[in-house]
Structures are given as C-alpha cells and as structure tokens.
Design a protein that fits this description.
Helix 2 (55-63) packs antiparallel against helix 9. The chain has helices at 2-8, 55-63, 71-84, 98-109, 112-115, 131-134, 137-142, 199-214, 217-232, 239-242, 248-256, 260-281; strands spanning 16-25, 30-38, 44-48, 91-96, 118-124, 146-151, 167-169, 186-187, 190-191. The protein has twelve helices and nine strands. The strands form two sheets. The protein has a seven-stranded mixed β-sheet with strand order 1-2-3-4-5-6-7. It has a two-stranded antiparallel ribbon with strand order 8-9. The N and C termini lie far apart (45 Å).
Amino acid sequence: MLFRKLAESRRFRGTMLRGYVSEKQHAEDMQFAALTYRLGDGSGFTAFRGTDGSVIGWKEDFTISYMQMTSGQERAISYLNHAFEGSECPIRVGGHSKGGNSAIYSSLFCDESIRKRITNIYSFDGPGFRDEILNSETYKEMLPRIRSFIPEASIVGMLLGSGSDPTIVKNSAIGIKQHYAYNWELKRNRFLLADRLKKSGDVINRAISGMLEDLSDTERQIFSDALFEILCAPDKETLKEIAKLKSYPSIIKAISNLRPEQQAVMKTAFKKIAQNGTGAFFK
C-alpha cells in the first residue's frame, strides 16, 4: 500500500528502488533489513529498518548496550559499502529505531570513499552509542551531518548517548506507541515540533538510562540474556504473541529457573530502575 502511494505521488514517482535485503539469524541474534533508493536529484538514500517486533530483533537492541559491534551493525557496514561501490553520487543514510543506530554506525565505519560522500544521516528515535563511539574522532567528524528526531515521550531514542540535541516531534499517540513513526505529526512536508519532552518519557528515560550506567558490560549482558530467556520460554516469535495470557505459565516457570547470578543481576537492575525513576519523577 505505502509503495503504491509513493509511486503515484508527484514527489516520489521517479524514485528507483534497489538492493532490498531482509535477514534473520538466530545464532547471531541478528535481524536486519535495508533498501536503497536512487532519488530524482541523482543522490542515493539507504534506509535501514528497525526492529520488526520479533523477539530476536528486540534482543539485538539490548546487545548494543554492551557490545562494541553487533552482528546487525557489522552487516549494515557491509551493506552500505556494497550499495555505493563503483558510484560517485552523494549519499544520504537513515533509519527508524534500531535502523537509525545502524544508519549512523555504518556511516562511521564504512569505507572512506563512501563516508566522504555522505551528506546527511537521519536517525528517527534510534538508540545512541557507547562512550568509546561518542568519543572517537570519526564520530566527532560526522556529528554535523547527523540529524536525530524523537517523539515527545521517546524511550528508545534516548537510550545511551548521542552527543547532540535531538529534534522533538509532536505525536498523536501516548506511551510507547509514540515510537511508531505513523503517529508522528506532520504539516505538508514538515514535522510539527515540540519544545520539550513530556514528563512521562523523561521519567522512563532517566530510570532506564540510570540503570544502564550503573551496570557493567558483564552485568548488562547477564541482564539481557536472563530477560530473553524468560521471553523465549513460551516459544513464540513475537512480543505480541508472548503478551497473551497463555504464555504466562511458561514465563513464570522461566523466572524461577534463572541461575542465581541471573536472579541477582535482575533484582539489582529492577531496583535501580525503580530508584532512578522515582528520583526523576520528583525532579
């Protein structure tokens, strides 16, 4: 439906699409998808897709907090290099959610011949990066080309660091539903902007970000592995399926079967979330 509407529109009808890939690797906790557009002005635009709702896709989001390079980020670099090898056109890169993170990461670490042609990088409510990325010379060099957009109650887009002030977009939804870009408000070809984040989003952000800051990389990995052992217990592919009542007995059993070190880290993590969230609420 969306692509048919784009093809019928005056603005996008001449756009060429190529290089679509969609991959899922359970062994590597990787869910990856991308598509490249050749625009009417002669430039190329690579769009990276975010998490697709699968359990494996969400688990990969968590690994960003403790791994220097995830399988998805590595695949994004390879895709971007291949998409523009042998060409000389200007390049734009972007993505929503995890796709925004992939867009920035691949732009930082792609071949120099590709990187120097990148004019703009767009992250739409994408998570940030670990300190070693933010403090790198390459990130500082590319930062002026990065444009980050988040909704008023952003959660995903405020995880980890970005080094820049994002543009806040008004939203017609509430809570986590603000993450979905179809709920972002537009007037013709412009976002409608807000002055500040909503209090609810700020409280959640401080709670989760504070928890991540207080945990070591090892503890973050233990927390992630334990959480997804629980979520995988019902043997369902998506979080929507897991949320159904018939999944609860398997989830409760999985929680009781966690190893002692997993239970300890989970308890610490949720305690810190509660402490940081309460502190943020009263600020």
